[in-house]
Design goal:
heterotrimer; A alpha+beta (355); B mainly alpha (527); C mainly alpha (389); A: 355 residues; alpha+beta; Alpha-Beta Plaits; three-stranded mixed β-sheet; two-stranded antiparallel sheet; C: 389 residues; mainly alpha; Formate dehydrogenase/DMSO reductase fold; 0% strand; disordered N terminus
């Protein structure tokens, strides 16, 4: 592994390892709800499972009558969840303290996971406390249903053209229009197991009940802090997990969970291009240097070869010349010697040629 | 290439080995026992003797005693097979030893004896327990659930034992005291105490020659041996097996004798209760005249109230805890409150009264008689006879019947129609309900004592208003719901429903059901 | 090595017949889905809003298409020029992968025609899905541009081709940035639902896990795709490509081995930081170990051995193992370990129609790949641009 590759990878790993840490700048701000925002307190000790709340919701929202009428209380024996035409249901739970009833509906969280998850911001938390849904922008991705820790939103899967997400809206539209003053379910309850009011007041009421009757209640208001706080609060005489309220959801809201990862998103396009351009630059430079070094080496080799060749040539030429000189010398010596011999032999004859 | 293949082969082996060991981390024990008896048992004995000597290496052993008694009795063996007798002939409840002296020795005893016996049984072809090497079958981390319940000697059981052992003269069959001079246990007629006064949770060494055995040892030894003797003599006897006393199912089968004759231990019929601080009576608010005789009928045994040890001179018995704290079941208020919630006729009204509301000032004088404080001059407690006589005098003139107003003053039917919308006005059978409640309270002394004022009963429903023959209407206080000025007060609809339904639910009435609104057994017809 | 001559063979090859049947089924399912709604063709319900269309088509599709950014960055940014012949096939795989992810998405969305809404009508910028959508949309554009060089060469559009080719480095860098963002955000989608995902798979490090594993997935997919397409596309493969093929396997096997080892360690860190060791001793723990040991650690070793011993066969099979491992991981996170707390009668099982649409989409990818790579310079170099590298 080349060094630059290693460095590049380390840089990448470093930033991605930083991903899960929360963005501290905005991290210790906790949204306590809009001032004066409303909520509902449900008292499990008071609920008798009469399903009048379901009737109230059905009437206010003009929903069709269900298959089994609301007066059929045996349906509470099966654990139901919210459906497209039942924004709220009441279930019967067999608990350590006998049968207890609980109403299920949207919890209208202070920091809703559905609103955080929606990529077209179709959900919004109203100052009234309600979490409302805007059908006109919904694309139908259903990420809100994944995000909701209470498994509340439903979807009209069988509608091919105009499918939408459905959930309780705390009768926000109707209350804002002045048609009703309290949500339909709250209005119908004969036992005031549901109390509608400002969330802060409801917490005080709940605390009063818990203090006045410690033997009758678990000392905890469910929804006060769960997933960052919800507008729908529960008090109960039996452990909450026995009436279908999960106690392992933690107190961190969905948006807070996301904040860590979201905070890193901006860092990536800021840093990656630098890193990668840097790596590319280094690569290119190394290539250039390598090419130059190669060229230099080639040139050097050529020069050396040339030098050697010319020296060899010189030596050969030198040798050749020496050889020639030597040959010439030898021939001359030979010729002289022959001439001398011929002269010596020619003294007896008078044939001299004038040497 | 060849090298690569070998490497690959060994990598694969290593991988499989790693995977297997990660999954099967502990040597598995026999599962047979767990499958065979998947119900809870009452005979679980946890053998953790070695824990006293230091840190133990393996989990404690869970031993099922009845299972072994049964198996041994089939072989014709009895307690002596495992339990030794000491020099005085008393059976030790320890296994094959009299004392816990040496850790290695004890470990050896257990392993040799237990596994040895199992081996013998295997040799004779019988189904038996774990053997060598099956360590985790005994030292198991998953013992069967235990449903062991403690058993108490209550009045009924005590009475049956008295009869079985021969009556009031034969207390010495069980009760004894240690005679220091004779250095032995002798009967102590007239001074019999609760066993636990001397036999504590752990053995106590009183002197070199006297170790008082723990309650566990003493009780099992006494009870079980005696039961076995009786059984041997073919007489009707108590259980000798764990489950016989300690399993809930068998406890339910124990015959209960109601109305046992009063156990005379020199207790008074009536007395005055007063707190003593450093021997001085605190009688400013007056002592409480207390009908001891009638209260004996309300409890299972003396220890329901007398929790500590009394003094043997009989002057007084320690009553533990604050008499007024609602959560103290051995005190007056706590027990009274529990009774209120027990009986249906009381629960209806009393379940709705807030628990943590401070009692009214009038309730103190109901019990404390200030006029009697003159008896305690300078805080000195008068003689027993004086106390008893005075108490009896006061108690005799007490009114113990529930007072109520005349029938004509109780409206017969009340029509509740203020909120009538989708339903007809409800017709409440007012007089019938009141009279029925009064009738059900007739024979209840507590109800009678505390409800002496004639309009007090009305306040059960007509609450938070002065006691009167003409109490205010509900709508005087309960108006529209969710009123921010009175956040804790329900609206009128919820007040009606809440009052009636809470009472019915607390009284566990079958009809009307909370959810029967409008039919024959309901409260208001549909329009 | 030049392009083919017009094929005179019959169109009724076994591949074509099967593909044709699948296309017909796909068409029918499309009509069914859009005529009668999602409920008519899926087993999705209110407890299980996402099924295999998201779990497999989207999550696995995007992870396996990561070969594009891995290969192009390796060759252009990290200077591994000897693999340059592998870039175009990788880009094509990636482009088709992402294109058909968007196609598959149309089936899953309730109102697919509103897909541009987050960008043009109202943006939910708090949402991880917004990030995924934006980055996938941008990256698809980048891939399209990178891919377009090949058909432009085929069409002879020299000037346009030169323009786009000049942007290669910028596009590559942009591609890595966008890939990092959306690969990790797909993992981050599940951060908001800790109560629904089994603790062994849930971690605040999910984005890191998804990103790192996508690198290994990309490399393995490039190798796998090379292996699968070798025989059918052999006649359009240039000498260059074939010559570099072995080195590609060795190089990528080495790289993938390192990445998988790193992935293994960060997964272990995830367990350690949440102190979940005791969970390994449960049924779910054993399933997790199957995924971690058998499909992450094992291929890491096998890749290392294969690269060292130059064992091509081992490398190819390990590539398949790794790809299956990534698929397993994505399916675990989205479908199997998701909603693990619900009773079995409330768990999701895909309907045959959902499987059918998935097969349909994959088939379309294969067909497109075959057509494009046989007609345009993917596996070979266009003679006019031979020396432009």
């Amino acid at each position: 592994m080349k060094r630059r590759n290693f460095l590049g990878l380390m840089g990448a790993a470093g930033v991605s390892a930083a991903l899960p840490t929360k963005a501290q700048a905005g991290g210790n701000v906790h949204f306590e709800g809009y001032p004066g925002s409303k909520g509902v307190l449900f008292d499990a000790n008071r609920c008798i499972g009469c399903r009048k709340c379901e009737i109230g919701c059905n009437e206010v929202n003009n929903l069709p009558q269900p298959e089994k009428p609301f007066t059929d209380l045996s349906v509470t024996e099966t654990t139901r969840r919210t459906e497209n035409e039942a924004y709220t249901v009441v279930n019967k739970y067999e608990t350590s303290g006998g049968p207890v009833f609980r109403k299920i509906q949207c919890m209208h969280c202070l920091e809703p996971s559905c609103a955080s998850a929606c990529f077209v911001a179709a959900f919004s938390k109203q100052p009234s406390g309600a979490v409302v849904y805007d059908e006109s922008v919904c694309v139908g991705c259903r990420y809100c249903m994944i995000a909701c820790p209470f498994e509340i939103p439903t979807y009209t899967y069988n509608d091919p053209i105009t499918p939408k997400v459905i959930k309780c809206d705390l009768c926000d539209a109707n209350i804002n229009a002045g048609k009703i003053s309290v949500p339909g379910c709250v209005n119908k309850c004969p036992k005031e197991a549901l109390v509608y009011g400002e969330r802060d007041e409801l917490i005080k009421i709940a605390r009063n009940r818990l203090e006045a009757n410690p033997e009758k209640y678990i000392d905890h208001i469910y929804g006060e802090n769960e997933v960052g706080g919800t507008s729908w609060l529960f008090i109960s005489g039996v452990p909450f997990s026995e009436i279908g309220l999960r106690e392992d959801l933690g107190t961190v809201s969905g948006p807070e969970l996301n904040s860590g990862a979201l905070s890193v998103v901006a860092m990536v396009p800021a840093l990656w291009p630098l890193l990668l351009a840097g790596v590319y630059g280094i690569t290119k430079r190394t290539d250039k240097i390598n090419t130059k070094e190669k060229a230099d080496a080639v040139a050097k080799a050529i020069a050396e070869t040339q030098d050697k060749a010319s020296e060899d040539m010189k030596a050969a030429m030198e040798r050749a010349r020496n050889d020639k000189e030597a040959t010439v010398k030898r021939e001359v010596t030979k010729a002289l010697k022959e001439a001398e011999e011929a002269a010596a032999a020619g003294d007896g004859e008078k044939e001299e040629e004038g040497a | 290439m060849e090298k690569g293949r070998r490497l690959l082969f060994w990598a694969g082996i290593l991988f499989v080995f790693a995977a297997t060991s990660v999954v099967f981390l502990e040597a598995q024990g026999l599962e047979a026992q767990a499958k065979a008896a998947s119900e809870a048992r009452a005979d679980t004995v946890t053998i953790d003797t070695l824990a006293e000597f230091g840190k133990i290496e393996l989990p404690v052993v869970t031993f099922y005693h009845d299972q072994h008694t049964d198996a041994l009795s089939k072989q014709g063996k009895d307690c002596a097979a495992c339990h030794e007798k000491d020099s005085k002939g008393k059976l030790s409840i320890k296994f094959k030893r009299l004392a816990d002296d040496d850790a290695e020795k004890i470990k050896g005893i257990y392993h040799t004896a237990c596994i040895g016996c199992h081996k013998d049984m295997v040799a004779s072809g019988q189904k038996t327990g774990p053997l060598d090497g099956q360590c985790r079958s005994c030292h198991t981390v998953k013992p069967l659930p235990s449903d062991w319940e403690a058993i108490a000697m209550d009045k009924s059981l005590h009475y049956r034992h008295v009869k079985a052992t021969g009556g009031d003269e034969k207390c010495g069959s069980c009760h004894h005291v240690y005679d220091k001079a004779k250095k032995e246990l002798v009967a102590d007629k007239g001074k019999e105490q609760n066993c636990r006064n001397c036999h504590l949770a752990t053995p106590t060494v009183k002197s070199p020659e006297l170790t008082v055995r723990s309650y566990d040892q003493a009780a099992h030894n006494k009870c079980v041996s005696c039961h076995q003797d009786f059984t041997a003599k073919k007489k009707d006897s108590g259980p000798a097996k764990c489950a016989g006393c300690h399993s809930a199912a068998d406890q339910a089968k124990i015959k209960v004798v109601k109305d046992t004759p009063r156990l005379k231990r020199g207790q008074p019929d009536a007395t005055l209760l007063v707190a003593l601080v450093k021997g001085k009576a605190q009688a400013n608010i007056g002592p409480v005249p207390f009908n001891h005789k009638s209260h004996e009928g309300y409890t299972a045994d003396c220890r329901s109230c007398h929790v500590g040890k009394g003094t043997m001179d009989g002057k007084y018995f320690e009553l533990a805890g604050d008499m007024h704290v609602v959560t103290n079941m051995t005190g007056c208020i706590g027990c009274h409150k529990a009774k209120q919630e027990e009986k249906a006729v009381c629960a209806g009204c009393h379940s709705q009264m807030a628990e943590i509301k401070a009692p009214s000032k009038a309730s103190c004088v109901k019990c404390h008689d200030e006029s009697l404080k003159t008896l305690y001059v300078d805080g000195i407690v008068p003689e027993k006879e004086v106390i008893a006589a005075k108490a009896a005098e006061v108690i005799a003139i007490r009114n113990m019947t529930v007072a109520t107003i005349a029938d004509e003053d109780i409206p017969e039917k009340v029509v509740i129609g203020t909120l009538s919308d989708k339903f007809e006005p409800g017709k409440l059978p007012h007089r019938k309900i009141v009279k029925r409640l009064i009738k059900d309270m007739q024979n209840d002394n507590m109800a009678g004592f505390f409800h002496g004022q004639e309009t007090l009963m009305c306040q059960g429903c007509h609450h938070n208003s002065p006691a009167s023959k003409t109490p205010p209407k509900c709508s005087s206080c309960h108006g529209a719901p969710f009123n921010p000025v009175k956040p804790n007060m329900p609206g009128l609809k919820a007040a009606y429903h809440g009052q009636c339904m809470s009472c019915h639910t607390a009284m566990k009435l079958e009809k009307p059901q909370n959810t029967t609104c409008d039919d024959a057994e309901g409260c208001h017809k549909k329009k | 090595m030049t392009t083919e001559s017009v094929s005179k063979q019959s169109l009724l090859t076994p591949f074509n017949i099967i593909a044709g049947l699948i296309l017909l089924m796909g068409a029918a399912l499309t009509v069914w889905r859009f005529g009668w709604g999602i409920g008519a063709v899926t087993n999705l319900d209110n407890n299980n809003p996402w099924g295999i269309w998201i779990g497999f088509d989207l999550l696995c599709g995007v992870a396996l298409a990561a070969g594009g950014y891995v290969t192009s960055s390796a060759v252009y940014l990290f200077g591994m020029k000897k693999h340059h012949a592998a870039v175009r096939p990788a880009i094509l795989t990636a482009f088709l992968g992402y294109l058909f992810v968007v196609v598959a998405l149309q089936y899953d969305l309730g109102r697919p025609w509103r897909l541009p809404y987050p960008f043009v009508v109202q943006s939910g910028t708090t949402s991880m899905l917004f990030e995924v959508g934006l980055c996938v949309a941008l990256y698809l554009t980048v891939l399209f541009l990178e891919f377009s060089v090949a058909p432009l060469e085929w069409l002879g559009k020299k000037k346009l081709r030169k323009l786009i080719h000049g942007m290669t480095i910028v596009l590559t860098i942009f591609g890595v940035v966008l890939s990092t963002l959306h690969q990790s955000s797909l993992g981050a989608l599940y951060i908001i639902a800790p109560a629904k995902l089994h603790p062994l798979w849930y971690s605040s490090y999910l984005p890191t896990f998804f990103f790192v594993s996508s690198a290994a997935a990309g490399m393995s997919m490039v190798m796998l795709e090379g292996w699968i397409s070798h025989k059918p596309m052999h006649k359009v493969m240039s000498d260059d490509y074939l010559g570099q093929s072995d080195d590609l396997y060795y190089g990528f096997a080495k790289g993938a081995s390192w990445v998988l080892m790193g992935y293994f360690f960060i997964k272990v860190i995830g367990i350690a930081s949440d102190n979940e060791w005791h969970l390994l001793n449960t049924g779910w723990g054993q399933w997790f170990l199957v995924e971690l040991l058998g499909f992450v650690l094992l291929p890491s070793f096998l890749y290392a051995i294969g690269a060292r011993e130059k064992n091509l066969k081992l490398i190819k099979w390990t590539a398949l193992l790794t790809v299956l491992g990534i698929v397993l991981n994505r399916l675990n996170v989205s479908l199997i370990a998701f909603n693990w707390h619900l009773p079995s009668e409330m768990r999701y099982v895909p309907s045959w129609q959902e499987v059918g649409v998935t097969i349909f989409v994959v088939t379309m990818i294969v067909i497109s790949f075959k057509i494009i790579s046989s007609k345009t310079p993917i596996f070979y170099e266009h003679p006019d641009y031979k020396d432009e590298h």
